Amino acid sequence: MEYLEVNRANWNARVPVHVGSDFYDVTGFVAGRSRLRPFEREEVGDVSGRRLAHLQCHFGLDTLSWARLGAEVTGLDFSDAAIEQAAAIAAKCGVPAAFVTADVYDAVEALGAATFDIVYTGFGALVWLPDLARWAETVAALLKPGGFLYLAEFHPFADIMDDATGTTVAYDYFNHGPHVWEEPHTYTGGEILDHQTSVQFQHGIGDVVTAVSGAGLRVEFLHEHDHTLFQRYPTLVADEGEYRFPEGSPKIPLMYSLRASAGGAGPAGSAGGMTSR
């Protein structure tokens, strides 16, 4: 199966559903709401005047959230429908931003060999990529010396637990796929999709760190988080827009964030050394 064209058709079908969904709340975003999570803003730091590339940006709400904080942003996604919506939302918000349609592996050429202070990749991106080493090499080529990658992702450990409670191992952590899914609806609900097939790939934490370090980037930190952005399991409890296991119950990592710097002097305010929490 040609994963790229299958997934492109699937995501082009998702775009109008997502734009109209309560999950993304485009109306609230245009009115000024940010899509970034507090820990992302804290871990990335001040972006004022810094060039930021957002790979796999979907229709650009996270990208534009960084722009509202002062970054000079460029968003890239393989879905032409998503990029069209991103440009329209940017214009509606009056936020300067550039958006480019391209596969992430073609990002260096598509962005004209430009380099950036920050390369950002957000939630739900890596499962669409078969080759993490190639992705990390692309990131490294986009970074200025002293710039950094910031990745915020759903934790792969959460995907091996049972769907009912999230407390029992039910799936193979090392089964990288490809995994072919037939799903009539996207994760925001809404109308039935015209293209329902998607192809995904599972990557462990070790795969991510190995790819990043293998591309010559220095890992500054890897933070694991005990909450997520949606009700991944029925047992999770909503807590001010986050979802956690109930108080007193065992917890597993549900999200993680990683920052890694390019060669040269480390970025100002970097954590220094690899840490975990």
Automatic annotation (TrEMBL):
<dbReference type="GO" id="GO:0008168">
    <property type="term" value="F:methyltransferase activity"/>
</dbReference>
<dbReference type="Pfam" id="PF08242">
    <property type="entry name" value="Methyltransf_12"/>
</dbReference>
<keyword id="KW-0489">Methyltransferase</keyword>
<dbReference type="InterPro" id="IPR013217">
    <property type="entry name" value="Methyltransf_12"/>
</dbReference>
<feature type="domain" description="Methyltransferase type 12">
    <location>
        <begin position="55"/>
        <end position="149"/>
    </location>
</feature>
<protein>
    <submittedName>
        <fullName>Class I SAM-dependent methyltransferase</fullName>
    </submittedName>
</protein>
<dbReference type="InterPro" id="IPR029063">
    <property type="entry name" value="SAM-dependent_MTases_sf"/>
</dbReference>
<keyword id="KW-0808">Transferase</keyword>
<dbReference type="GO" id="GO:0032259">
    <property type="term" value="P:methylation"/>
</dbReference>
